[in-house]
Amino acid sequence: MFASYDPSSYSSAEDKADPYQLDAYGMLDLRAGAKVGPGYAQVQVYNVLNFDGFVEGVNNSDGTDIRYGFPSWGRTANVSYRINF
Question: Torsions phi, psi of 51, nearest 5?
């Protein structure tokens, strides 16, 4: 995956041709649920392996080598209970 960038904001032709490439990554999400009483209970865990990196990047257009983007959220969990009536 490559960082998003605007080629018109670069002055050098070399910079326009080579956007920043983010490191490869994978995420594992798990979900388990069961019928409990009159409803349905569910547990979800996102980013189980706690990936710590950028999931979206933006090139820096001022010529410096500093890059930034949107970091991953880290591990999160969700518990829910649904009742049908």
Answer: -55, 130
Between CA 53 and CA 57, with CA 54 as vertex, the angle to 5 degrees is 155
Which of 3, 53, 8, 6 has the alpha carbon at shortest distance from 27? 53
For residue 35, which of 82, 2, 69, 71 has the smallest C-alpha distance? 82
Can you read off the two tokens belonging to residue 12? 């050098």
The predicted-structure confidence for 6-61, as pLDDT tens digits, reads as follows 666 666 666 555 666 666 778 899 999 999 999 999 999 999 998 887 777 776 65
Angle at 26 between CA 57 and CA 58, to 5 degrees: 0
